[in-house]
What we know:
Elements: E1 3-7, E2 10-12, E3 18-25, E4 33-39, E5 46-52, E6 58-60, E7 68-72, E8 78-83, E9 92-99, E10 114-115, E11 119-123
Parallel strand pairs: 2-11
Antiparallel strand pairs: 1-3, 3-8, 4-5, 4-9, 5-6, 7-8, 9-10, 9-11
Amino acid sequence: QVQLVESGGGLVQPGGSLRLSCSTSGITFGPYAVGWFRQAPGKEREFVGARRWATGATYYTDSVKGRFSISKNTAGDTAYLQMNSLKPEDTAVYYCAAGRPITSTIQTMRGYTYWGQGTQVTVAS
């Protein structure tokens, strides 16, 4: 059984940084793409970023480009979302996902098979 578990969320001041972790059991991330999504209160879940490990290709939504980055450990069982220069509008529950999306679906929820339970990120002074 595949499980994804996010951690690392919390309260941070504007301009601060957080690193979210996504640990997996049942698979390793190498053959998959890892996506990060977020959902703010009263809003739909939205794409944040994704990375294909086989090609190294990365995708980020415009609002986080240059501030967020996705990586993984050498064992391939933990992925990370490094978030810098955080803004109040980054406040949301963040979800990691793994799957084998095609190019047209890599920025959509339907491109992913496995999902974590989410971790809360709050950016406030």
